[in-house]
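Design job #97: recover the sequence.
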């Protein structure tokens, strides 16, 4: 429903600010008072209804057209919807605050996973050599084994860094599901 305030908007905003509520909250309270106790009870009961964490609700933001374009561009660069992007910023997802291309981080993680797959294959070959009794050939793998602990630590460091960047800093919101869906 839209209402033409006919010049009363400034007074409405001033009164709402004075009471520490939004203009919409102020108007709902005034309408509930005007419509009587039953309307006030219905409005109050709706205030206590909790929305399911997975439910999507609309949030309208007022900003300049330049800020709107910047927000849309940043969301597009992050590969997210504007709502998921703003929710991620509010949740403190580091990769969104830094505004660095997530592709670089994910590429590093993919490369590190490829290295781990190579190491796993080589370890399988080493086990086969031991089973065959080829201790000399297995001994040749020593150089690779000497650097193995470092490779694993480096992989865990990379993976931890990428996961920390996409993990929100607080509770379960839309942003906390970024790592589980197509939005990341």
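Job complete. Output follows.
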């Amino acid at each position: 429903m839209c209402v033409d305030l006919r010049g009363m908007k400034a007074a409405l905003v001033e009164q709402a600010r004075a009471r520490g509520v939004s203009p919409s909250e102020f108007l709902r309270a005034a309408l509930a008072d005007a419509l009587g106790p039953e309307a006030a009870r219905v409005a109050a009961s709706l205030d206590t209804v909790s929305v399911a964490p997975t439910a999507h609700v609309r949030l309208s933001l007022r900003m300049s057209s330049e800020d709107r374009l910047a927000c849309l561009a940043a969301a597009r660069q992050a590969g997210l919807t504007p709502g998921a992007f703003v929710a991620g910023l509010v949740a403190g997802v580091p990769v969104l605050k830094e505004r660095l291309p997530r592709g670089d981080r994910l590429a590093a993680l993919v490369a590190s996973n490829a290295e781990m797959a190579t190491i796993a294959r080589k370890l399988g070959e080493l086990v086969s050599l031991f089973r065959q009794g080829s201790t000399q050939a297995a001994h040749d793998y020593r150089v690779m084994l000497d650097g193995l602990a470092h490779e694993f630590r480096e992989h865990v460091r990379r993976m931890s860094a990428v996961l920390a960047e996409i993990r929100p800093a607080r509770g379960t919101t839309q942003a906390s599901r970024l790592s589980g869906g197509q939005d990341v």
